[in-house]
TrEMBL record, chains A, B:
Gene3D superfamilies assigned: 3.30.420.40, Winged helix-like DNA-binding domain superfamily/Winged helix DNA-binding domain
Name of protein: ROK family transcriptional regulator
Family under the similarity heading: Belongs to the ROK (NagC/XylR) family.
Lineage per the UniProt record: Bacteria, Bacillati, Actinomycetota, Actinomycetes, Jiangellales
Source organism superkingdom: Bacteria
Length: 420, 420
């Protein structure tokens, strides 16, 4: 609620606009003052004052450089400073753990990833995982790059308010207070100070990442699907990230599409991911018993096996072609339902659906023509742009949210911390 | 974008707050100034000034009356005036047409409904329908009650920007520019002046109505299902009405739930509404060939037949019980998917699902326990509160939107029109 109180109205508007300008630069990297004025609808003297304030906070830099190398008289460009404040982005995937230090503008300054290896295959001990994250974060964090927030992407169902992981079947977790644990056992220990820790589901962060810096940029209504062992999903509706009442929204992998289908790990039957996920592809291709199949001991992700099947299908192998076609058919059936529900401008396909986009697309288009009730000619199907980086990029975006919303307050708190 | 421009900042904030106060009164009917201050977080002197402005616009009335009959010293209450400006709400249903005059506060001041009768059963001529709406509106409109907008609810797939009806299978319509036609052939002719005309799908307006004045009040994340011949759906996500990129969102009836199911009118197979809609219930109860079955000539809606089956099920009739149980099972299967996708705080069941809520609920709860992956204990299932009034209530809300957003501008335009 914007209050009318003499003296504070102008201040509230100014702080709102400071956030708007910083966000533009965070997304675009560098813009001239006149581009900033055009994009924000603010007048030039206001832009000047706001840029000066952001400069004094060490968040942007100004210079007579045309950073994009075009000809003509260089205009004064305002660039985001990616080296002054950073976020810590953590990804807890099925087969690996990654930690990255990400600067403003989404620049990944440093990244470490470790594979979980065979010993983790039967489930993952929470303490071991926290130890790994602690070790990676210790390697990456430097005293001269203050951290303003931490974001965690996890392959589980997460309560957004406090980062409580309700269940993460592929990690063997139930009821893990991950947000709290990362705050106390990683952030506080490694950094020596507290910063906000946000946790979200990997695919939810995938759509955030693709919307911010990937294939969904500029689209206000987006459905993002990521094909892995399960089907992850994330939704942007009317420009906003859909999280649901408790933050559990986007669990599209368990939409029932085939009541006579296979039993799913969730207790249901014929869930979308049992029909169109990685295991379905391997089963249909007759590869379920190969040593690198996802259920086989010592291996949890079948990305390599999946890609071999996709390559074989491209080469005309009939069994592989059949398997890819069936997965595309089920993918299309579920996707028709989501298009009818959301009427998205763009559908972004990630994970194995992104890697196999060329072989899936013809069947998908055909099924959607039959099944999507709403005039779907306007819905674009595109492959994801960020590939495996999406969860980390999304986690960093999430961690930057407080700074982007209240740049002056967050930076003031940082200064106070430094001077103590 | 809120701009910083000297002289205009304060004005923009004041107009925003004027809208906030009017909306509170529109939703609550009457509030004391201190309740208004508490709900809007505005200070009392601001509230006083805003209420005086709304009073001068004839939109509210102030008095020392405790409108709610509680004891003690009466405080000055501010009440919405429902008799000064009105909207025209139109409902184009499968078997009837209704027009209502609705005042601020959602008060239905007058309503006329006509059944379509047997001659309309094979489809509905657009011209005839416009003629009926014209006649009803002419009866209802009075020169001393100026109309500020018109809203139309229609059982079809509607492009929200201009009220173009892409397809309305149960009316036999394709590609009808309904918004334009109602504007030129009803509003302009009956009123003699132009007002904005908004058109939306009946179930989309159902969720708007239930969210504003019904069973979904106060919930930020809502899934609304209305069981009729089809399954209508409307979504509120994070407090906002979900419309999709083109306004076609919420077409949940055509989510595929049973690939081996019956052929659907949309061209698909085993859509949710073929398994859990009115026709499924009648078919399962063995009533599909009765003269009042929905496909029989001379009848398009099977509400009477549905209610007989539900009553029989309540009385222990085994065939009726089986039919209701099967519909509940398929309803639950689809609903599990929607709960996984949206993580709603509340699911509101309307149409036949609302009328049969007591007999459907036990099966639904059981299926959701099995199938809803996300911790669904927090998702409430409730019957709709507004019953058949929901589409008209929603259409009126839609028509009030411009007035609620910019009370002074809309009322100024009205004054100018009157003085011409």
């Amino acid at each position: 609620m914007v209050r009318i109180e003499h003296g504070s109205t102008h201040e509230a508007v100014r702080r709102h606009n400071l956030s708007v300008v910083l966000r533009q630069l965070h997304l675009q990297g560098a813009l001239s003052r006149s581009e900033l004025a055009a994009r924000t609808e603010l007048n030039r003297s206001t832009i000047k004052a706001l840029v000066e304030q952001l400069d004094s906070l060490d968040l942007v830099v100004e210079g007579d450089l045309d950073l994009r190398g075009t000809r003509g008289r260089p205009s004064t460009m305002v660039g985001i400073r990616s080296d002054q404040v950073v976020t810590l982005a953590v990804e807890i995937a099925v087969d690996s753990i990654a930690v990255a230090v990400v600067g403003l503008g989404g620049h990944v300054l440093d990244i470490r990833r470790v594979d979980r290896g065979t010993d983790g295959a039967a489930g993952t001990d929470v303490d071991d995982m926290l130890g790994t994250i602690h070790a990676l974060a210790t390697e990456l964090c430097q005293p001269d790059r203050p951290v303003v927030g931490a974001g965690v992407a996890v392959v589980g169902i997460v309560r957004r308010a406090d980062g409580f992981v309700h269940v993460a079947p592929n990690l063997g977790w139930t009821a893990v207070p991950l947000g709290e644990l990362v705050a106390s056992r990683v952030v506080q220990e490694v950094l020596g100070y507290d910063v906000p820790v946000s946790v979200a589901n990997e695919a939810d962060l995938g759509v955030l990442a693709e919307h911010t810096r990937g294939a969904a940029q500029g689209a206000a209504d987006v459905v993002y699907l990521s094909g892995e062992v399960g089907i992850g999903g994330g939704i942007i509706a009317d420009g906003r990230w859909l999280t649901g009442a408790r933050g559990y929204a986007g669990e599209i992998g368990h939409m029932p599409v085939n009541p006579d289908g296979l039993r799913c790990g969730c207790g249901g039957r014929g869930c979308w991911e049992t029909e169109a996920g990685e295991r379905a592809l391997l089963r249909l291709a007759g590869d379920a018993n190969r040593p690198d199949a996802p259920d086989a001991p010592g291996r949890r992700s079948g990305a390599g096996a999946v890609d071999e099947i996709v390559t074989a299908a491209r080469g005309g192998d009939p069994q592989a072609g059949y398997a890819v076609g069936e997965v595309a058919r089920w993918l299309g059936i579920g996707l028709a339902g989501l298009i009818n529900v959301f009427d998205p401008e763009r559908v972004v396909l990630g994970g194995m659906y992104g890697r196999a986009f060329d072989v899936l697309e013809p069947t998908l288009v055909e099924i959607l023509k039959d099944r999507a009730l709403t005039p779907s000619s306007g819905t674009e199907l595109v492959p994801a742009a960020l590939a495996t980086a999406a969860p980390l990029v999304g986690a960093a975006e999430l961690a930057f949210t407080p700074l982007l919303e209240q740049p002056d307050r967050v930076m003031d708190a940082l200064m106070n911390r430094r001077s103590q």
